[in-house]
Amino acid sequence: MTIPSTLKAWSVTELGEPVDALQLVERAVPTPGEGQVLVRVLASAANFPDVLMCRGVYQVKPELPFTPGREVCAEVISTGPGVTRAKVGDRVLGLTTLPHGGFAEYALMDQHAVHSAPASLDDAQAACLFIGYQTGWFGLHRLARIQPGETLLVHAAAGGVGSAAIQLGKAAGAKVIGVVGGAAKAAYAKELGADLVIDRREEDFVALVNEFTDGRGADVIYDPVGGETYQRSTKCIAFEGRIIVVGFAGGEIQSAKLNHALVKNYAILGIHWGLYNTKNPQAVDDCHKELTRLADSGAIVPFVSERFEIDGVPAGLQRLADGKTVGRVVMEHSQSST
């Protein structure tokens, strides 16, 4: 394949909301360095950290200008020195290397973040298999050690992270409760397989969780929201339960009352999955093999609610920022396979 000299990419030139911060530019195609691969982007999934990076409030703050889009399915078209994990022509998924992110025609990836894309998933689905599902698997299995028959409560259950947790919980044999905001999101969470769906705008999730579990509470609570949602979750956590702190999409970082954890004998577990990529990459590889097995068996299928081409990136990312999406929204190039 002939590699062009320039590419189109969405570039953040000044911080702000995605619709304001992103500018479509043409720039030189980067050359892969030591241990890197150059990929042709087939699909790039939008994640909330992409929004936060546009705003400049994420823990990773790339220098301006940069192209967001960390999660991709792509074709390897060139390899740098020392690359052993991928070869030209491979269909892969994983993390891009900023500033050359996935909302572009071409991107860079460090080889440790390159994984084979399951043939059972199309490009847009495969682009969604990494961050959300890896976070869910590590949180539920490696940290919380969820068991068949336990009750899992998932907050923001209609979002990308939450929807992955629902599917992984069901695959683990758990009973799953999904908490969402709004009727449309409730219908989606039910479609994903949640045994009980609670619309937090209309119902008290604490009361309904305790009722569903006969007063015992949820064994595992998966919380990407934080703030008041976390505080109220402590009122429906089971004895020896586990609360997984995934993030703070609600905008408030809560303070945990450790005396309450002591009295009720529950654990508070933090999951920053990105650290495993450098601290224990073998665990990430092993997780990917398990996720591929689950995808090939049909136990997990990333739900892509919106597919758009490169021109639709700012609007799609803004819809995610505004909480108007369910499942995953994905940029997919027209030349990619579906």
TrEMBL record:
Q: Which SUPFAM superfamilies match?
A: GroES-like, NAD(P)-binding Rossmann-fold domains
Q: What is the lineage of its organism?
A: Bacteria, Bacillati, Actinomycetota, Actinomycetes, Micrococcales
Establish whether keyword Cytoplasm is in the entry.
Answer: no
Keywords, in A-Z order: Oxidoreductase
Among CDD domains, the record links this protein to: QOR1
Q: Superkingdom of the source?
A: Bacteria
Tell me if Membrane is a UniProt keyword of this record. no
Output the Gene Ontology terms for molecular function: quinone reductase (NADPH) activity
Q: What class of enzyme is it?
A: oxidoreductase
InterPro entries documented for this protein: ADH-like_C, ADH-like_N, ER, GroES-like_sf, NAD(P)-bd_dom_sf, Quin_OxRdtase/zeta-crystal_CS, Zn-ADH-like_protein
Q: What is the name of this protein?
A: NADPH2:quinone reductase
Stretches assigned to the Enoyl reductase (ER) domain: 17-331
Q: What is its EC number?
A: 1.6.5.5
Q: Which species is this record about?
A: Paeniglutamicibacter psychrophenolicus
- Enumerate the SMART domains for this protein: PKS_ER
Which PANTHER family does the entry mention? QUINONE OXIDOREDUCTASE-LIKE PROTEIN 2, SHORT-CHAIN DEHYDROGENASE/REDUCTASE
| PROSITE patterns with a match to the protein in the record | QOR_ZETA_CRYSTAL
